[in-house]
Amino acid sequence: MFCDEIADLLSAAFYEPCNVLLWGPGGHGKSEMAVAALRGLGLAESEIFIQSFGEGMSEDRLWGGPDMASLDTCVRYDTTRSFLAPQYKVVIFEELFDAPAQALLPLKDVLTRRVFMNGPERVEMSAKVVIACTNKDPREFAEDSDAVQALMERFLLQKEVRWPGYEAKHYRELFAKVRPGASMGGKQLHTLLSKVIAGLNEDKTFIMSPRMAIQSLEVVSNAARIHGDDIITPDAFQSIRFVQGMQSYTADLARRIEKQLPGGKSVDSASSKELVNIPLSEQDFSHHNAGPLKTPRREIPKMVRETLESRFIHADEIVQVLTHAFFQPCNVLLWGPGGHGKSDMVMTALRALGYEEDEIFLQSFGEGMTEDRLWGGPNIAKLDVCLEYDTDRSFLPYEVVILEEILDASSQALLPLKDVLTRRVFMNGNQGVPMMSKSIVACTNKDPRQFAKDSDAVKALLERFPLQLEVRWPSYEQTDYEALFSKTHPDAGPDRRKLNRIYAHVIADLNDERDAGFHVSPRIALGGLRLAANSVGRHGRRKMIVEDILTIRNVQGMESYKKDVEAMIRSALLEGGVEVLLSDIDERAGRLQGKMEEINAKFEMAKQLDDEARGDVNDEAITAMVDLMSSMDSLKHELLHLQISDPALQKWKKRSETLVDELATEIEAGS
């Protein structure tokens, strides 16, 4: 789309030949257009060198890494793994101006002299044309960086790549190029989807890129196939919310999509569904070279839905996004607060699709993630010759992959990962290792929108995950936690269900006591419930008391409470767990009775002692008796303030009152 000027520019660059800089907003296919032009000129993949720069770019990586064979003699680079290798005729540098000056300045020198001094050896630069691509405006960078300004002067031709407009007609033309053989129904879909996208662009604060628009077409059309009838209805358009970049919208996205549809009032209205009923044909769906996953596509929707809904609550959206990711297949990013089972849900879905544990590659990233670890570690057998990796131990041979905490990794690891996700090939030394992964699921507790603002490496990587979803519950009320506990213990008896209800009430009440934004996660809730239930069993009790619920204080995440957790829990139980307070009172009354018997035994023992010893024991027993009477007053006070309407609990309260009164009478008589 709108490639006439770019084609002319590239033609001039190849004819001269000279270097060219393409810049502009992401998602417009700058690198793809360059590669397509080079293929059109007859260049093979082995003659085109593509490398991502960025914050993590180093001089070492720029020149191909150390030459291991000469490392004990001098510092030399293995330039056969860099853009200087003689087989490369054209070089494409992506995100060039995101790199630090330490990498840009030596690159400027080589582009000027066309020679790199590798120790005492002169290495000639064979490539005739260097095409640099960046999402940044180089004019802004050149003002603040002499390195950027000097490097820009080595690119004779420069062009901003963006569409002249982002209206419905432009997206409709794009879809016609992507699906040239579309049926009449497919063309109707293109027209309506173009209108929806243009409507989302109206406020100008967000513009859907061509790459995002193509993925929107993918998910909307696939929604019809996932549904099983190949019919486009209003619900299909709501799948746009999973497309990368749509996270910039908030809760009004569904309404804004619906507004552009015929009827335009309610996604669920019968009239709207009648107005949007578009049948699609086989030519309206893409056919990916990667092929489907192990499970046939027609079976994926049902298997993912039934598997996740049987174990997790509030799983509707993650069912949909994983269905799209495995159906297409493509990469997906799941993000949101910890403890919501993102990786667990993905593993559960993949097992349901027929993958064994050893067929699923799972790797945690993080601040300590290195490029070395990403590609499987060095091949020790060749370490004295060259630096190659044991890629059989990396994610490259696996069909399905889960990468955890991906946004915590450094740029040094994210940049090469982005390259491989783009090209689907990893250059291991001079050998190309194909990436077999069809669907990569990245999980993170961080908000990618914040990271993308601060890190160009992250922003570039996020674009390689066409589907994205924030995973969190819509609410964290008592009913939500009860539903969670019910899923976890579907065969629970009456007593366990009562425990679940009370514990859910306590947790929901704890949420209200914290600053906005904090919620007891599903993982913390389940861990706390398990501890409470175990506490009852460990102490041989038949009923739960406050002490059992207080075990939640030891669960990860609860240590940040600054208030008295016991007081908060007792307050919560007054509203939704009076039976626990009654059990607690009965338990404490029993303990006090035992203490009274111990005190009486001390008085009896004192009678057999001499006067001085008897006085000491009696003083100790009297102090204990005073504490005992104070504890009895506390029990009476608690019973007095228990407001109970349930008849069964009222009877229980009366029994407890009788027990406490009898014990108090005994204590007073003993004193």
Detailed description of the structure:
With 671 residues, the chain is of the alpha/beta class. It has five domains: 3-160, P-loop containing nucleotide triphosphate hydrolases (Rossmann fold, 3-Layer(aba) Sandwich), CATH 3.40.50; 165-265 and 275-287, no CATH class; 329-472, Rossmann fold, CATH 3.40.50; 478-576; 586-669, no CATH class. Helix content is 49%, strand content 10%. The protein contains 27 helices and 16 strands. The strands form five sheets. A five-stranded parallel beta sheet has the order 2-3-6-1-7. Strands 11-12-15-10-16 form a five-stranded parallel beta sheet, with helices on one face. A two-stranded antiparallel ribbon has the order 4-5. α21 packs across α24 (565-576) and α26 (611-640) packs antiparallel against α27. The longest helix has 30 residues, at 611-640. The radius of gyration is 34 Å and the shape is elongated. The N and C termini lie far apart (96 Å). 38% of the residues are buried.
